[in-house]
Amino acid sequence: RSNETIEWLVDAMNVDIYVVGSALKLLLSKGIHPKAVIISDAQQSIVKQLENTDYKGMLFYLLTANTEAVNLHQGEKYMLCQQGYEAAEELADKYSLPKLATGGSVATTTFSLLEHLGYENIVLFGQDLGYSGERTHAEGSTSGKVVMNSLIQIKANDGSVIKTQPNLYVYLRWFNEHCPTAKANIYNTARKGAKIKGTQFITKESFLQLEACD
User: Fold this and answer.
1) Is the N end or the C end of the chain the one with fewer CB atoms within 10 Å?
2) Rounded to whole angstroms, how far apart are CA atoms 59 and 69?
3) Overall average pLDDT of the 75-92 stretch
4) Is residue 78 classed as helix, strand or coil in its secondary structure?
5) Span 193-209, mean pLDDT?
6) Alpha-carbon distance 124 to 69, whole Å?
7) Cα three-residue angle 190-162-185, rounded to 5 degrees
8) Backbone phi, then psi, for 148, in 5-degree steps?
9) Tell me, what's the pLDDT at 142?
10) Strand pairing category for 161-164 and 152-155
11) Confidence band (pLDDT; 50, 70, 90) for 137?
């Protein structure tokens, strides 16, 4: 949601970037080529997240993700199976695939994927989970919209109070439950974003030092 931290990734050299589908074109426009993109939604609108791009990295997709979008991708593809969905769990058992806690959003799904892959450090970008302004996503995202009336007040990483909506509050509660128990060190870059339990706010300078040590 914040365009500011996207610029951090331009200077980062030693990181694996996993991006949700709605932010893929934004990163590509900055010359940032992620290691993987993740999609989860069955809606037809998901197709536009991948079409007309030169992206050839990995694609991770939920069993229920839009088939046309999955078929559009020409690179490596890996299906993910979600916990609590009978058809997905049966498929996971049949082919010895991991079952991921999806949390209801592509961002929470991505977090579960990174945990499963065993990363030592996970840095959250764009997980504001609220609004210091009136936009729901970073400018350039395929999912961005303007929100005038948010209902819930929450604390931000800088100590200020921001507003959020019930659906984002559900995702915040999910992160608050899973981040404190994660084996990885979890860092959050959203200064004006929601404070997430079990995460440490990180500045650009600290982020670049962290990635230099990996």
Assistant:
1) C
2) 10
3) 96
4) strand
5) 95
6) 25
7) 30
8) -95, -35
9) 47
10) antiparallel
11) very low
